[in-house]
Write a structure and sequence with these properties.
Elements (H helix, E strand, L loop, with lengths): L1 E3 L2 E4 L2 E2 H7 L4 E5 H14 L6 E5 L6 H9 L3 E4 L2 H9 L7 E3 L6 H9 L4 E4 L2 H13 L4 E6 L25 H12 L4 E7 L10 H17 L5 E3 L17 H14 L3 E4 L3 H4 L3 E12 L4 E5 L8 H5 L5 E3 L11 E4 L8 E5 L10 E4 L20 E6 L2 E6 L4 H4 L1
Parallel strand pairs: 4-19, 5-6, 5-12, 6-7, 7-8, 8-9, 9-10, 10-11, 11-12, 14-16
Antiparallel strand pairs: 1-2, 2-3, 4-13, 13-14, 13-18, 15-18, 16-17, 19-20
Helix pairs in contact: 5-6, 8-9
The structure holds ligand LLP.
The site of ligand LLP has 22 residues, from α10 and α11.
Length: about 400
């Protein structure tokens, strides 16, 4: 994704072509970038060939999932809906793991019937529920237990999941109790120890702490896990300030861990695969001048891209067409929704904008369309996938008549 003769271009497709043909806002993905990210992710850990289960919650567009499947990945799902769409994309059930703190009985029944790789359980009560379903079907079900390692991921507090005050996973004491119970169960097969400490993690050190906690526990319980599921969480460089996750170090740590433990590694990456593969194109509707700053009111809003409003996340914004018209003004990029938090970014480093200009909101592939909603009865945007210079519509814009 770069400028070609001052026009923002995805692969070989100049985006002025897209806005001539489609309404905005619109999500636009690069097939090439998705494929590259998968290859790079795999190469980072090639010495131990992990099972890579793409975190469906980060992006659940069926066509994207099909592409991910064609590139050999499995799926990490957190609901019956996600499990259904992963299967519909053709992902083999033996490459699917199911996480989440509140899987209902009917969701568990569905997962058990589909013979997925693992149900990663997050509570004692859930383990009993799985056992009761397994018993009723006279089946032995493969499970994992998610440990809460009480590790600070040093990320935004809203997307931190591995500390003891977070709702996720089981603490060490309960882990040891349930382990004894499972060992004597005829219907449960404990195959995996799983963890996931948070998302958008840029510092590799929390992962070292997490691995140390796992090592200590494994030593204490002296149990051979077929799989260790390390979750996802590897962050991306949203600000383009070269703060990159150190895959080399993470790979080294895991290799060291594997010297002591004979096991297969599972990863559940979402953002690191899909985050920087998409942009959201939006049009300036009005410019409202104010004494201190100008409000650039665009046609995308917090219902299309929730991350800034929900987490204070910052997504870079750039013009679709670069000019050399400078301005000293401060711009507040806001959407039309009736909420003060419906704001994307404040910046004083932008070219002069006019009404009807187009802007590009960057790195929206992860938790962009999947977190979008119909708030204010706004239809969800269309999604397109660029292959070379070809535009493929992978989701049509919702029609108002379908949501009213
Ligand atoms: N595995 C589990 C169990 C998870 O809960 C998550 C994300 C992942 C894997 C994938 O994590 P990733 O590699 O994408 O960091 N909506 C927030 C992020 C929430 C993440 C929830 N769990 C955001 O927009 O930043």
């Amino acid at each position: 994704m770069k400028y070609n003769k001052n026009i923002f271009t995805v692969d070989k497709c100049k985006l002025n072509k897209v806005v001539k043909k489609f309404e905005t806002p619109i999500f636009c993905y690069s097939e090439k970038k998705i494929t590259e990210n998968i290859i790079n992710f795999r190469n980072n850990f090639k010495s131990f060939s992990p099972v890579i289960c793409f975190s469906t919650k980060s992006n659940c567009n069926l066509e994207i999932l099909k592409l991910i499947k064609r590139n050999g990945l499995g799926a990490d799902v957190v609901s019956k809906g996600e499990l259904m769409i992963a299967l519909k994309a053709g992902i083999n059930s033996k490459k699917i793991v199911f996480s989440g703190v509140g899987k209902t009985r009917s969701e568990l029944i569905y997962a058990i019937e589909k013979n997925i790789l693992l149900i990663n359980s997050e509570s004692k009560s859930e383990i009993l529920e799985i056992e009761s379903i397994a018993k009723s079907k006279n089946k032995k079900v493969d499970i994992g237990i998610r440990l809460n390692p009480n590790t600070d991921a040093k990320t935004l507090k809203q997307i931190s999941t591995g500390k003891k005050e977070n709702k996720f996973g089981i603490n060490e004491k309960t882990f040891i109790e349930v382990l004894e119970y499972i060992k004597s169960s005829k219907f449960l097969n404990l195959k995996c120890l799983s963890v996931h400490i948070g998302s958008q993690i840029l510092d590799h050190k929390p992962y070292q702490k997490m691995l140390n906690v796992l090592q200590k526990l494994i030593k204490k319980i002296d149990y051979n896990f077929e799989y260790i599921d390390l979750g996802g969480g590897m962050g991306i460089d949203y600000n383009k300030d070269n703060k990159k996750f150190n895959y080399k170090k993470y790979n080294q740590m895991i290799k060291k861990f594997l010297k002591k433990n004979k096991t297969k590694i599972i990863f559940e990456p979402g953002r690191s695969i899909i985050g920087d593969t998409a942009i959201l194109i939006s049009k300036v509707i009005y410019i409202k001048e104010n004494s201190k700053k100008d409000f650039i009111i665009v046609d995308a809003a917090m219902n299309d891209l929730m991350r800034p409003a929900l987490y204070g996340a910052k997504h870079r914004i750039v013009p679709l067409k670069k000019t050399n018209k400078k301005t000293k003004k401060t711009y507040d990029f806001v959407g039309p929704i009736c909420e003060t938090t419906d704001k994307f970014l404040t910046t004083n480093k932008f070219q002069k904008l006019n009404e009807k200009d187009y802007i590009i909101i960057c790195d929206v592939g992860a938790y962009g369309s999947s977190l979008s909603s119909n708030y204010n009865i706004r239809p969800k945007p269309a999604e397109i996938l660029i292959r070379g210079s070809k535009i493929n519509v992978i989701k049509k814009r919702q029609k108002l008549k379908d949501i009213i």
